[in-house]
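Deliverable D2.4 — example input (structure tokens):
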């Protein structure tokens, strides 16, 4: 099954509209700067926190550049969660577009 993926420039409008974004980087990476509203679920804990991804809405998964988030999407697909979309370019792409980031341990 192919994982759905969008380029990071499509995420801006989705974030503005309140879409759920899950960041699968490590806590220190997240705290140093993340997409506003993004919820932290480190890659190593994705399967034990799969309830964070179980939603009727699409869940957009990000990491630094798109590799770990793709892994997370693949792991979730393997356990039957198919509403996840990988964000190619990740947080670095978000920043390179000039978008705002938030620091600290809270989503916004």
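Example output (designed residues):
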């Amino acid at each position: 099954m192919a994982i759905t993926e969008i380029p990071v420039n499509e995420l801006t409008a989705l974030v503005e509209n309140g879409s759920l974004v899950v960041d699968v980087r490590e806590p220190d990476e997240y705290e140093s700067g993340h997409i506003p509203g993004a919820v932290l679920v480190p890659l190593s804990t994705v399967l034990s926190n799969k309830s964070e991804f179980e939603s009727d809405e699409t869940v957009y998964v990000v990491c630094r550049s798109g590799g770990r988030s793709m892994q997370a999407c693949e792991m979730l697909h393997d356990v039957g969660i198919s509403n996840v979309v990988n964000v190619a370019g990740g947080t670095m792409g978000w920043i390179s577009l000039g978008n705002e980031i938030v620091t600290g341990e809270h989503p916004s």
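The chain has one domain: 5-96.
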